[in-house]
Amino acid sequence: MKGKSPSPLELVKLCCRALDEKKAEDVRVLDVSEQSSITDYLVVATGTSDPHLRALRVELEKAIDASGTRILGMETVQDSGWFVVDLFDVMVHIFSPAVRERYGLENLWKDAIEVSVPKLLAAPKASRPRSPKRVSAARKPVKKRSKK
């Protein structure tokens, strides 16, 4: 996506796809645009171990870089069980299970609107071109006779 930066919702989709491809667990998206002055969306997910958290971070960085989006900040403290990626309109929080439960980030944003991740990940249905009807040489269509 060189040239034009993705919209905030496109960026959320991109992050969710990257996390889904690396098997992040319990991915949730919260629209906090009405509650927050610093971001529009929060993406929250869980990694199962420290190596899994690192793999999620690397995959996320690759996807963001490929989109041409600038990462404004990234907070990663080794073995903390939590990292944050600031993309201005989108903030991504990836936790270990214990750290996610301890901080309960989603509970701080109870008034936010939850966005359906399965709908975000669903690929748009491609319309298949219809093939023309074939008339076999052995059988020609029969014209209906009109009743008089």
TrEMBL record:
Residues 127-148 have a biased composition (Basic residues). It is found in: Cytoplasm. Keywords: Cytoplasm, Repressor, Translation regulation. It comes from the Bacteria. Gene3D superfamilies: Beta Polymerase, domain 2. Residues 124-148 are annotated as: Disordered. One of its GO terms (biological process) is negative regulation of ribosome biogenesis. Its main location: cytoplasm. GO terms for molecular function: ribosomal large subunit binding. GO terms for cellular component: cytoplasm. Interacts with ribosomal protein uL14 (rplN). Functions as a ribosomal silencing factor. Interacts with ribosomal protein uL14 (rplN), blocking formation of intersubunit bridge B8. Prevents association of the 30S and 50S ribosomal subunits and the formation of functional ribosomes, thus repressing translation. This is Ribosomal silencing factor RsfS. It comes from Opitutus terrae (strain DSM 11246 / JCM 15787 / PB90-1).
